[in-house]
Design a protein that fits this description.
Layout (H helix, E strand, L loop, with lengths): L2 E5 L5 E4 L5 H7 L2 E2 L13 E6 L1 E4 L3 E4 L2 E5 L3 E3 L3 E5 L3 E2 L6 E14 L2 E7 L13 E5 L5 E5 L9 E7 L5 H6 L8 E8 L12 E6 L3 H14 L5 E7 L9 H9 L3 E7 L9 E2 L2 H8 L7 E6 L1 H13 L7 E5 L12
Parallel strand pairs: 1-9, 17-18, 17-21, 18-19, 19-20, 21-22
Antiparallel strand pairs: 1-2, 3-10, 4-7, 4-9, 5-6, 5-8, 11-12, 11-16, 12-15, 13-14, 13-16
Length: 336
């Protein structure tokens, strides 16, 4: 039996088919709700259930009123009213499943590999800078990776893969791949993309391979000839973990609208730059974030801390955009 979903404080109403999640139903109806992993781990899609009943995978039944409800895992059991963190009109995603081939794999750092994929001849897939794709693994599981290439280079995909010990893809399958090997991918996913209707200066905060979607965003702005002010803070444990630091250095030297601040979380006696938590470096430079947009991607502990601390520094919560990178292998849906 299908159910009706209403959005509190708005005139938005859409239907949800049996077995369909609220997030999927919203997308099908032409509305975008923030999300990252779609697996119930990152909490990006959390919202309120004002009235009605739902079933949350990994958590069980939930009755309104309730907070912290994972909309990517919630299937209505009655007509419901929800209060998402944000919902906007959007074109329904035109996703495609593509049989890509490995073009090149390089080691960017001891824990990071760059994987260049090529799509079949004549195949191009539209996406927005900052979005991600899923790699389909044997057995039906998937892994999510942000696309580091800008949208105009859409005849393939460039992935920055952090090697995780015991990881199904990065730890087991990656080293066995060679040029020409097939990989089935689906794209695009995600709502982590620059708001081109905003001209507010943007602070980009990344940890580790969270640099991948930032690279796509910056290169897209270069391609567009835009001049919106972007300041990247990239945090890592060591110098070598800033695996492409020379690239944002070049951007900063060439474009007046771009600034780059690398930050190391571990002490390095010879390091001339900033140290500590990367979001603390942002706060040291921006005591008032009220006039800014913030895009944070990478470690979920960082994105959660940044969300809370930046709000205290005056950031409008609606101007905080997040893509939390969560481990997929043994991750379980968040409960409670």
């Amino acid at each position: 039996m299908s159910h009706v979903v209403r959005v509190a404080g708005s005139e938005i109403v859409f239907g949800c088919e049996p077995g369909e999640t609220v997030l999927d139903a919203a997308e099908r109806a032409g509305y975008a709700i923030p999300y990252s992993c779609r697996k119930g781990v990152c909490s990006t899609c959390e919202g309120g259930l004002i009235t009605g009943k739902g079933e949350v995978r990994g958590r069980g039944p939930v009755d309104g009123p309730a907070t912290g409800v994972l909309l990517c895992q919630t299937r209505p059991a009655s007509d419901i009213e929800i209060a998402p963190q944000r919902i906007v009109s959007s074109e329904p995603p035109a996703r495609r499943v593509v049989e890509a081939k490995v073009h090149k794999i390089t080691t960017a750092a001891p824990e990071v590999a760059t994987v260049a994929l090529r799509f079949p001849a004549g195949v191009r897939v539209k996406f927005r800078a900052g979005q991600y794709l899923t790699v389909r693994l044997p057995g039906g599981d998937t892994r999510n990776y942000s696309m580091a290439n800008p949208p105009h280079q859409n005849d393939g995909a460039l992935l920055h893969v952090r090697r995780v010990p015991g990881g199904r893809f990065s730890g087991e399958l990656l080293d066995g791949l060679s040029k020409g090997d097939p990989l089935t991918v689906e794209l695009p996913f995600g709502e982590f993309a620059l708001d081109h209707d905003s001209d507010r200066p943007a602070v980009l905060v990344a940890t580790g391979t969270g640099f991948a979607p930032v690279k796509s965003m910056v290169e897209d702005q270069i391609r567009r000839g835009g001049e919106r002010r972007l300041h990247l803070y990239w945090g890592a444990r060591s110098r070598e973990a800033l695996y492409l630091a020379e690239l944002p250095d070049r951007w900063a030297a060439k474009y007046d609208w771009f600034s780059f601040t690398p930050v190391l979380s571990r002490t390095d006696p010879g390091w001339p730059g900033r140290s500590g938590y990367v979001h603390h470096a942002v706060l040291a430079d921006h005591t008032d974030l009220g006039a800014h947009d913030v895009y944070a991607c990478g470690n979920p502990d960082m994105t959660a801390a940044a969300r809370a601390d930046f709000a205290e520094a005056g950031l409008d919560p609606d101007r905080f955009f997040c893509d939390a990178f969560v481990a997929s292998g043994n991750a379980q849906p968040v409960a409670g």
